[in-house]
Amino acid sequence: MTRWIAAKDRWPPGRRPLEVAILCLLLGLTGCSDRDPEADATAASPVTPSAVEITTAPVERGAISQQISAPGSLAALRESRIGPEVEGRIWKVYVDAGDRVREGDPLFQIEPDTYVLALRRAKAARDLAQAERRQQEADLARARALFKKDVISRQQVDRLETTVEVARANERQAIEAVDLAQLDLRRTIVHAPYAGSVIQRLADEGTSAQARPQTIVLVLQETARLEGLATIPEAYLDAVAIGDRTLLHVEGMGEAIETAISSVGDAVDPATRTYEVRMRVPNPDFRLKAGVFARVEIFPRPKRDVLLVPREAVRTEEGRTRVLTIRDGRAEALPVELGVVTPDAAEVLSGLEAGERVIVGEEARTLAPGMRVRERPGAREAAEAS
User: Exposed, middle or buried by CB within 10 Å (0-12, 13-18, 19+), for 174?
Assistant: First the structure.
């Protein structure tokens, strides 16, 4: 009784619990609830995720060109280790390290006295052989005259004819000895085989020099033209060809040096998995030095009529290369095999056909396969118009 009286005191004056209950029931039956029926229906039904707006681009045929960067260096086009062709004491060295020489300039000389005397002896032997040949020919002429008069026999004439042939052979041999002695004398002076720079001087005057094995006196390099060398990864084995445009960047040089590939190596180094390419580098002002490092950029000829997709459409995950396309309103990942790849485009070797469309832009990198997608309104028309 006490508990009921306390509750009764809390109701507004003139209202009783039974009256309030009846009032609430009537309000419920007449639709006086505070809740929104549409909101209740929405809350009762499952939530359907909205499709992600994406942009696509077509797979097209076109041309693609790849830029290849590789480390390299400059080397002398030719380098020769020069020694004497005849032995003897070095009499004079005409150049020093750092000197530039023209083709045919004297480099050093072997003492010539021995070879001057050898030439004189050879000439004397030649003169003697010529005199003997003339004497034998005269004897043969007289013998033939006597044979006609039946003074001497035919056998005696034959012996004199043989003697003349021997004398003539001796004369020819003596003449060749003179030529050889003259050649040896000329060889005492060693000339530059081509225009270049003396890189090293390895012997001085007074050194006894041998011809075999040869004593190296100077090292000469051709420096008016150099040769660029670069090592290319074997992944680009089919990309580089003779004649491809090339830029060489040398530290300290203001501008890149433009040239072209002159040769492509036929062998791959098994240790580095690279092959070597070479290019001719003009150096008329001798500003470039053999041995310097160079960064090489090669621009191969473009590959034409190949399947291409935008580079941004390609994604690599867990070692697999894929692109996203649309199938039944959802993103689908397709594995692809790529060839040449540039910052803007990628060559497709397999996995796609011309005319298919792939997802590009930020969504190409972030979408998960299977998500609902739809193209942005007007995106395809805008892309085709551009």
Answer: buried
Q: Is the pLDDT of residue 12 over 90?
A: no
Q: Is 373 helix (H, G, I), strand (E, B) or coil?
A: strand
* pTM score: 0.62
Q: In what order do the strands lie in the sheet with 330-335?
A: 315-317, 320-327, 330-335
φ, ψ for residue 21, nearest 5 deg: -65, -45
CA 372, 377, 382 angle in degrees (round to 5)?
A: 125
Nearest to 230 by CA among 263, 194, 187: 263
Question: Does residue 111 carry a pLDDT above 60?
Answer: yes
pLDDT at residue 175, rounded to an integer? 97
Q: What are phi and psi of 221, to 5 degrees?
A: -125, 145
Half-sphere exposure of 88 (CA within 13 A, CB side): 21
Mean pLDDT over residues 190-212, rounded?
95
Q: Count Cβ atoms below 10 Å from residue 126 Cβ, excluding itself.
A: 21
Task: Provide mean pLDDT across the span 97-119.
Answer: 96
B/e letters for 5-37, b = 16+ CB within 10 Å, e = fewer, are eeeeeeeeeeeeeeeeeeeeeeeeeeeeeeeee
Q: Tell me how many degrees the CA angle 19-24-29 measures, rounded to the nearest 5.
A: 130
